[in-house]
Amino acid sequence: MNTPSPDISGSKPNMMPQMPGMPNFGTMNVKVNVQTEDGKQSTYSVVDTEQTAYSDTLVISCSKESIINEVNALKNQANDIINKMPDFEQTVKDCDQLLSELDTSFRDQQRTNQRLDNMECKLDEIFKFVKSQKQD
């Protein structure tokens, strides 16, 4: 995976330097101009033999199939994270339980939070009752 970098050179293609002991196949960097919807323009230098290039969250490709593959990979990654959410939620509950058993200040804070939550629920019920009485 080659990472394109903003190109600050002239308008001629840039030949990559030959690596010692490796044959030079004439790989070139090609300039790609990208304009975003907000009107900003950036020029990236991409190796011409790459199907797809990346710069932070930007994917550069001339192949529709490559873009589709990238979108599918991103979707699969997001689905994997979503599917793991119940496990993480359970981990948080388990850690809270352990902390309440081991750490007295955490336990006291949890109890205080629980009392405040109960008071908020009761106040909500009172407000609903008062509001319903005003309507009658």
Strand content: 15-25%
Distance between the termini: 70 Å
- Main-sheet strand order equals 1-4-3-2
Major sheet description: 4 strands, antiparallel
Mean of the pLDDT scores? Answer: 82
Oligomer: single chain
Number of strands: 6
Count of the domains? 2
Sequence stretches where pLDDT stays below 50 over 5 or more residues: 5-13
Report the helical percentage: 40-55%
Number of helices: 2
Shape: elongated
Order of helices and strands: EEEEEEHH
Region (Disordered): 1-27
Biased composition (Low complexity): 13-24
Biased composition (Polar residues): 1-12
Structure description:
- This protein has 136 residues and is of the alpha+beta class.
- It folds into 2 domains: 5-62, no CATH class; 72-135, no CATH class.
- The chain has 2 helices and 6 strands.
- The protein has a 4-stranded antiparallel sheet, with no helix packed on it.
- Helix 1 (64-102) crosses helix 2 (104-135).
- The longest helix has 39 residues, at 64-102.
- The model is unreliable at 5-13 (pLDDT under 50).
- Residues 13-24 have a biased composition (Low complexity).
SSE topology:
Elements: E1 5-6, E2 14-15, E3 28-35, E4 41-47, E5 52-55, E6 58-61, H1 64-102, H2 104-135
Antiparallel strand pairs: 1-4, 2-3, 3-4, 5-6
Q: Short summary of the structure?
A:
The protein has about 140 residues and is of the alpha+beta class. The protein is built from two helices and six strands. Mean pLDDT is about 80; it is low at about 5-15.
